[in-house]
Amino acid sequence: MTPAATGIRPLRASDAEAFSALRRELCALHPVQMGISLEEELQRPIESFRSQLSMPVPNAVFGAFVDGELAATAAVSRSSAFLAAAHKMTMWAVFTSTRHRRRGLSRRLVEHAVAHAFANGIHRVNLTVYLPNDPALALYRSLGFVECGREPDAVQLGGRYYHGMQMTLCKAESADAAYEYP
Q1: Which of 92, 125, 131, 156 has CA atoms 20 to 30 A from the CA of 140?
Q2: 147 pairs with which residues across the strands?
Q3: What does the pLDDT look like over 72-119, one tens digit per residue?
Q4: Which residues contact 81 (CB under 8 A, 6 or more apart)?
């Protein structure tokens, strides 16, 4: 069997339909890990995705394509418009179609998105994992992300609450910096 051809590239507004379809596939199967129900996802207009996929650099959404099909994504976006927070980004939209799992796509995309952030002067990348999600936690830990907090009842789906774990990764040359906490 010939391995599938895989490529990674930034997503554009013209990829909005494929991005939405992938999100819907995963919300139907894994709403907790996605942090949103399928019903809520179905209410999102396609224009909102076109807008997300058109954000200016350093914001970026990357997609892994397998034989031309969008199979996985990972994104980084500025946390705030204020200069005081210009040193950090939030990672989001890290997901892989169930048909393309166990191929290392999420790892490659997260590495790509983090490298993009750091290459654009970002000092820290933060993310939230909705629990339970052991595969995501294992991936992020293996890439150097560390837990930096927990949010009880971060999302409510189907009348049940799920916690969120915040994780962070600091750019290598500043990882040894001393931090003071109040």
Answers
A1: 156
A2: 167
A3: 999 999 988 899 999 999 999 999 999 999 999 999 999 999 999 999
A4: none
- The residues, ordered by sequence, that sit 6+ positions from 130 with a Cβ below 8 Å of its Cβ are 32, 33, 34, 35, 154, 155, 162, 163, 164
Length of the chain: 182
3-state secondary structure of 74: strand
Contact between 144 and 168 under an 8 Å Cβ cutoff? The reply is no
Q: For residue 94, give the CATH number of its domain.
A: 3.40.630.30
pTM for the complete prediction? 0.89
Q: Are 63 and 164 in contact (CB under 8 A)?
A: no
Residue 20: CB atoms within 10 Å: 18
In a domain, 164, yes or no: yes
Three-state SS at 59: coil
Give a yes or no: residue 180 inside a domain: no
Specify whether the CB–CB gap between 141 and 130 falls below 8 A: no
Structure tokens given for 53: 């996929």
- Number of domains comprising the chain: 1
Question: Whole-angstrom distance between the N-terminal and C-terminal Cα of the chain?
Answer: 58
Residue in 97, 90, 75, 76 with CA at minimum distance from that of residue 27? 97
- Tokens 């916690």 appear where? 163
